[in-house]
Amino acid sequence: MLPMEHPLPLSFVLPNPTNLPGLSLNLLDGNFEDLQDLLLRASTLTSNLNHDCSDLNDRLLHLRTDLTKHAVSWISTSLSAKVSLEDLRLNLESLLNLPTDSVGKQTNWELQQLVEELCRIQNRRKYFVTALKLESLVGDLEDSVFHHPISKRKGSTLQDLALKQERFSHAIKTMNQIEEILGDVTMHHSQWRRLVDSADSRVDKSLSVLRPQIIAEHRAFLSSLGWPPKLATSKVEHGEVDSIPNPLLLMQGDEKESYSQSFLLLCGLQQLNTQKEKRNKLHMTKENDNDGLWATDELVKPVASRMEYHFMKWADQPEFIFELVYKVTRDFADGVDDFLQPLIDRAMLVSCSAKEAWVSAMVQMLSGFLEKKVFPRLIDMFKEKHKKSEALSSWFHLVDQMVTFDKRMQTFVNSDTCLSYEGSSTAFSQGISVMGLFCKKPEWLKTWGKIELKDAYRKSKEDIKNEKAWVVDSERTRLGNESNSRSAKYVLSTREDYKAPLVADSFLNRTWRLIDHGLSLPAILPRIQFIRATATRFLWCIFKILLLEFKKTDLSHYSLSEDSLIQACGPINLARYLESKLREWSDDLVFVEMWAAETSVKVDRKPEVSCQGCFFGEELKSLVELETNWLMEIITVFLHQFDNLCSDHFHNNVVSWEEDVITSSSNLTVSQGVAEALDNLRRHLCVLHVNMNPKDFLDLWRNLAEGLDHYVSRKFFSGDPVLGRKKFDRYEVDAEALLTVLQPYCVRPGAFFPRVREILRLLRMHEEEKARLRGALSRNGNNCLRLFGISNLSAQLVEQFCRCY
C-alpha cells in the first residue's frame, strides 16, 4: 500500500497577505481574529457573501427593468414633441417657398438655417429612440441567454425540455425584433453603421451561445427517440434493401409536441440567420446559396454517420452506394413529408417542401462523400500511368451512376406534381442533384470534359476505319427516289432520307451523348461550359473528318467518273444530315435558354460569334459553307467538262458547220460536240440524283442551270454574225436539247435558262416584230424590253442582235 499523503499546512494554501488588496485585508480582519476563528466561521462568511451577491444581481436586474420602463415612457412622451417638430419644420419650409425680395433674403436664410437645425435635432431624436429600443431588446436577450444557464444534467424530463424551449422561443422572438429594427436602419439610415455593428456584435455573442444549445437539445431529443434507425442492408448486394421503420411516425402526445417545438425553434433560428444574411448582402449581387432546411439536415447527419460505414465497403462498387441512398430516401420520404410539412407550414416557411428538403439533404450527404472520398482518389489514379486505364473505367462508371441517380431522384420528386417540365434549367435544383458536385468543382468539370472528348474522338476514329462506314443504304435510296409525290422527297427526317452514310448515326449518337451528360448538370453556366468543351469541339472534329473524306475524291473535269461522284455524295449528305439535326436541337427550349444565357454573359465566346441566332450558330454556319463549297466544286467541274467537249462548236473559225449531226425527232440536227457534252451531263446528273440528298441535288442542278445559261448565252453573242440563219437554226436545236437535260427534274426547264429562252424568243421573231423592237429601242431604250417579254438580256445585247441579224 502507498503511504498516506499528509494534507498541506494552511500556510501553503492561503495566499500571502502582502499580495491581497487593502479592502480584502480589512474584510478578513473584521471577521476573523485568529486562524481558529477562520476555520470555524469561513463557511458562514461564504454563505453570507453569496446571499449578498444574489441580492445585488436581483437589484441590478430590477434597475434594468426600471430603466427600460422609463425609456419606453420617455419614448411615448417624445412622440408629441416629434409631431410638433415635424409641423414646425413643414411650416418653415412653406415659408421658404414664398416670394422673396431684397429685404427678406436675410430672413429666409435664417429660416433655412433653423429648418436644417430642426432636421438635425429630429434625426438625433430618431437615433436616440432607436438606440434605446435596441438597448432594451439586446439587454433582454442577454438576460435570457446569459443569466439563465441551461441545465446540462442528463435524463431531463419533458417538462424541463418545455421550459428550455420556452426560453429559446423568447430569445428568438427578441432577436427577430432586433433584426427588424436593424434592417430598417440599414435600409434608411446607412450612416448609423456603428450602431448596427455594436448591436450585431452583442447579438452574435448571444447567438453563438444559443444556437449550439438549441441544436444540442434537438439532437439529444432525436437520440432519445431512437433516431437514426438501424439500416437493414443485408439484401443490398442482391439489388434489394429491407424496408426501414420511421421513428418519427411512432411519436405520440407530449413527445410529438416537444419535437414539434424543437423543430419550430430550428426553423425560427434559420429564418433569423437568413434575414441577417440578406441584410448583410443587401448591396451584393451574389446569389444566396441553398443551405437546405436545418431541421432536416439534423435528421440526415446521424443517418449519414451510419451509412458511411457501408459506403467505405462499396468504394469500388458505387452502384450499391447509390442504391442504398435512394432506398433510404424513398422509404423515409413519405413519413417525413406527412409529419414535417405541417410543421413547415406552422413555421410559415415560404416555398419550402419537406419532401424536397429531405431529398436535398440526402443528396448533399452523398455528394459530400463523393467529394471527400471518391473523386480525390480517382484524380490521384489519373496521375499514375499504370492506373490511368482503370481510372478512366471507374470515372465513366461513376458518372453514369450519378446521372442515373439524378434522373431517378428527379422522377421521384416530381411524382407528386401534376406539372413538371423535364429538361428545364430550373426544373431540378442544384441541391437535389449529385451532379451539382461538378458545378462546385470547376477543375473536375474540366477534367471530365477532356476525358469525354478524348473518348468520343477515339471511338469515332475507330468507326471511320470500318469498311461500311461511308456506305449508303442503296435499297432505301432507290425506294425513296421512286416516291410518287414530288413534295414528299423534300420532307426529310431520317438518315436514310438524307442518304447519309452509316457513320452518320455514330457521329450523332456520340455528340448527343456528350450533350446529354452536359444537360445533367443542374446549373446553366457549367452546362454551357461542358457542352462547349465537349460536344462543340467534337463537332469540329467531325467537320475535319468530312473535309478530309471529300478531298479523297478525284473530281477532275478530264476524268470524272461515276465512282468519284458517288464518293463525293457521302460527306455532302452527311453534312446536310448534321445540319438538319443541329437545327432541330437548337430549336429545343433547353438550347434556347442556354443560348440566351451565353449571349448575356458571353461564356468563352466572342459576342459577334455567339449571336448567330441559335446555340449551334457558328457550327451551322461552317457546315453550310462546307456544303456550298463542295457543291460549287462539283458544278465547276461540270462546267469545265461541258466547255471542253463543246467549246469548239462556239468558235466559228474552228468548227465546220457541215460536221456530222445527230438527228432529232423534228428532223433538225444537234451538234455532235454539244450532244456528247449533254449526254455526259445527263449521266452525271442521274448519278447524283440517285446518290445525293434531294435538297443539295436541287441546289446543285439549279445553280448548274444558271451557270450553263450564262455560258451558252455569252457564247452566242460572241460568235460570228456572218454565218446567219444556219447558225440560228443550229443554236435553236442545241438550246432545245440543253433544256431537255433538266426535264426529269422539273416541269418547265426553260424557267431555269432565262437568257437562253429569251435568245430563242429573239431568234423566232418575224421581221415585222424585229422592226418594232428596233424602233422601240431607239425611242425608249431599256424601258421597252419587258413589253417584248425580255427581262434578263441587256439592251446592249438586244441592240447587237437587232443590228447584226
Q: Care to count the β-strands?
A: 2
Task: Give the low-confidence spans.
Answer: 1-8, 233-241, 283-289, 418-428, 607-611, 652-666
Number of helical elements: 26
Provide the helix percentage: 55-70%
SSE order: HHHHHHHHHHHHHHHHHHHHEEHHHHHH
Query: What is the average per-residue confidence, as pLDDT, rounded to a whole number?
Result: 81
Beta content: under 5%
Spatial shape:
elongated
Biggest sheet strand order reads 1-2
Going by helix content, strand content and strand pairing, the class is: mainly alpha
Largest sheet: 2 strands, antiparallel
Radius of gyration: 46 Å
- Calculate the terminal CA-CA distance, rounded to whole Å: 146 Å
Pfam family, one: RINT1_TIP1
InterPro entries: RINT1_Tip20
Protein name: RINT1-like protein MAG2L
GO cellular component, one term: Dsl1/NZR complex
Structure description:
This protein has 805 residues and is mainly alpha-helical. It is 70% helix and 1% strand. The chain has a two-stranded antiparallel sheet with strand order 1-2. A hairpin with a 5-residue loop joins strand 1 and strand 2. Helix 4 packs antiparallel against helix 5, helix 9 runs antiparallel to helix 10 and helix 17 packs antiparallel against helix 20. The radius of gyration is 46 Å and the shape is elongated. The N terminus is likely disordered. Pfam families: RINT1_TIP1. It comes from Arabidopsis arenosa. One of its GO terms (cellular component) is Dsl1/NZR complex.
